[in-house]
Each structure stands twice: as C-alpha cells, then as structure tokens.
C-alpha cells in the first residue's frame, strides 16, 4: 500500500545519491567542487570536435590521440587541451584519448582530465602546476601513481580518480585535500598512514573496490578529524569498519557481507545522521538491541537483509528502509519510540511525536492493513510502503 510519495526532503536526496547514482556529480558533499564561475558560461563549446571516447576492446588497442586543436590565445595552452579565454585558471583536457598528462601551465587551478587513457602519474606529471586545486582523472587507466607526485600539490582540494585501475590508495596525499574519490578501482590495499595527515578531508569515497576486513586496521582512518562522509559500499567487508572518525555524518556500507554490528558501535558518533546498510547479511542475531536507537540519526537503510523484527529507533528518525527482509509481524506499540499511551491525547503538542515520515516494509512477510497502533504512534508518517 502506498500513501503519498510526492514529497521530498532535501536531506533524503543528499543521503540517497551515493548509492543510486554512483557516477553522477555533484553529489553529497559539504561543498560543491565547482570553480568560481566567471560571468560567461563556465564551459563554452570548444572550437575543435569532441567525439565520444571509444572504449577499445583491449588496452593495447587504444584509439589514436585526437588531432590538436587550433592555437589558443594562451601561448602556454597544451595543444591537446582547451583553454577557455575567460577562465584562465581552468584547463579542459578531457575525452581526448590522451595517454599522458600534458604539460600543465602553472596558472591552472582546475584541471579536467577525465575520460582518457592515462595509465600513470609519473613524478613530473604536474611539475609546474603547484597551484592545482582540483584534478579530475575519472575514467582513465591509472595503475601507477608516483610516491611523490601528489605531495607537490599543496593546494589540492579535490582529487577525483574514480574508474581507474588502482590497486592501492595513493600515498603522500596533500594535507589540503577535502575530497578524495577513489571508487570503482581495484583497491585492496591501504598503505599505513595513507590518510593520517588528511585533517581537512571531508569526503572519502572507496566504494566498489576490493576492500576486505583485514585491510581496515584500527589506525587506518586515524587522523581524519573532519571526515563527514565515508563510503565503503560494494566491497567485501564482513565486519563494521573499526575506528571510524567520530565526526562522521554519513556512513555508507551497502552491498558488503556484514553480519553483525558490535554492541554500542554507533554510540561513538554523535553526528551520525545517515546510515546505509542495504544488501548485507544482517539478521536479528547480529543486531544488538538499541543499536540503531541513537539520537541524531535521520535516515536508516536496512533493506535487503535478513532482519525479522523491526529494530528500536529513536523518535528523531525520519526515514526507515526495511524492505526485502524477513519481517512477519509488526507491533506498533513495541516499536514506538515514545510511550504510546502517553500521547493518546491527540491535542497534545507535536513536539514529542516521533518524526518518522517514510517507512518501507514491502518485500517482507507482512500484509496490509497497516496496524492501527503503528499509525497512532507515528503520526507524522506521510508514506508507508507495505
Ligand atoms: C616551469 O616553470 C619555470 C619557471 O616559471 C619555467 O622556466 C619552465 O619553462 C616551466 N616548465 C615547463 C615545462 O613549463
Ligand atoms: C531508545 O533509547 C532511549 C534513550 O536512550 C530510551 O529511553 C528508549 O527506551 C530506547 N528505546 C527502546 C525501544 O529501547
Ligand atoms: C503489542 O505489544 C504490546 C506491548 O508489548 C502488547 O501489549 C500488545 O498485546 C501487542 N499487540 C499485539 C497485536 O500483539
Ligand atoms: C523486494 O521486494 C519487492 C516487493 O515485494 C519484490 O517485488 C522484489 O522482487 C524484492 N526484491 C528482491 C531482490 O528480492
């Protein structure tokens, strides 16, 4: 049964993007990674053709680099790239079938190198461009990153290397980093101390890699004092990650093999508002009582597990996804975060009414109608799917 689904909460969008649209950008983030916009359009149509990159069958069968564009107004503009005249700090070298990083002029802050065939970042890759703030290397073939190439970029704030062939997290990442996106690589190793100096890092995306429990040591995330979003979805973890930084706001662990959550695990995170644990192996046995009954949680995703009873939640929770589990019955009085009897008086203030507004229960062993005590408790519910 569906009640109104036509409302949307900005926070929900914020929380759901990481999983649903893994390549879309911009995504959940405290800041938009967008260079300041000059008065004219950010990205005028370049004057040379921009064909779609053709994916070769084999890495050895790379399409030829595209012919260089016309001369630029900037004498230092690499011929394989585009230098917008009204945005001198940006350099567009994306989708050009490049195998190497071109020589980047030192005036460049925003560098677009996505959708090429770059396989390596050697020491000299960004030699003169020490002012770089934003590098997009998504969708290349990078396997090797020189141990010192990144530490020479003291202003780097965003580093995007999604969809490459990295087997480990690059070392010597600059302290200035705020966003590190390494999803869809082959990462199975995190060198010791890889993140230890990244005190400003807000977002760490390691989803769709090959991370196993033994890679995440108690000191792996140590030092990430500002970390707000940690995405470890689509790996092969069996356990919850140890010592996640306490500032965390969003923790994404969908599509792993997690069976149990240690008792009190989430109590360490006073700001945690979004938890995603869809597609794991959680059952009642693995969920300590009250494990999700934490006061600042707004959105909890537990769909596609093997849970058979609705876990205790706090009255602040707004969205609860329990679809595709093994729930057979639901007792609204038992799961009500407040004492149901206490606010039978409907005229009482809404202050203490549980905040739950969206509840998914479909794909369980439940049948409509929705129990009356559930509706009595969660009076702000706008949508229940059962
Ligand atoms: C790097 O910068 C120096 C000093 O500004 C300049 O002399 C040199 O030609 C530049 N090198 C390249 C490869 O652009
Ligand atoms: C949830 O936690 C609160 C505060 O710690 C507590 O009062 C409440 O009884 C808990 N809910 C359940 C269902 O145990
Ligand atoms: C639900 O739980 C309450 C309190 O534990 C109990 O009194 C009530 O009988 C239960 N309702 C049903 C339908 O089982
Ligand atoms: C989840 O539940 C829905 C609704 O019952 C069902 O249509 C769907 O096939 C289920 N998905 C899986 C993967 O079991």
Automatic annotation (TrEMBL):
Biased composition (Pro residues): 35-51, 61-70
Region of interest (Disordered), ranges: 17-70
UniProt-listed SUPFAM superfamilies: L domain-like (SSF52058)
GO cellular component, one term: extracellular exosome
GO MF terms, alphabetically ordered: heparin binding
Domain LRRNT span(s) in chain numbering: 76-110
InterPro entries referenced in this protein's UniProt entry, alphabetically: Leu-rich_rpt, Leu-rich_rpt_typical-subtyp, LRR_dom_sf, LRRNT, SLRP
Compartments where located: Secreted, Extracellular space, Extracellular matrix
Compositional bias of kind Basic residues: 24-34
Location, primary (coarse class): secreted
Domain of life, per lineage: Eukaryota
Signal peptide residues on this chain, from the entry's feature table: 1-18
Pfam families: LRR_8, LRRNT
Keyword list, A-Z: Disulfide bond, Extracellular matrix, Glycoprotein, Leucine-rich repeat, Proteoglycan, Repeat, Secreted, Signal
Family: Belongs to the small leucine-rich proteoglycan (SLRP) family. SLRP class II subfamily.
Protein name: Prolargin
Organism (species): Erinaceus europaeus (Western European hedgehog)
Gene designation per UniProt: PRELP
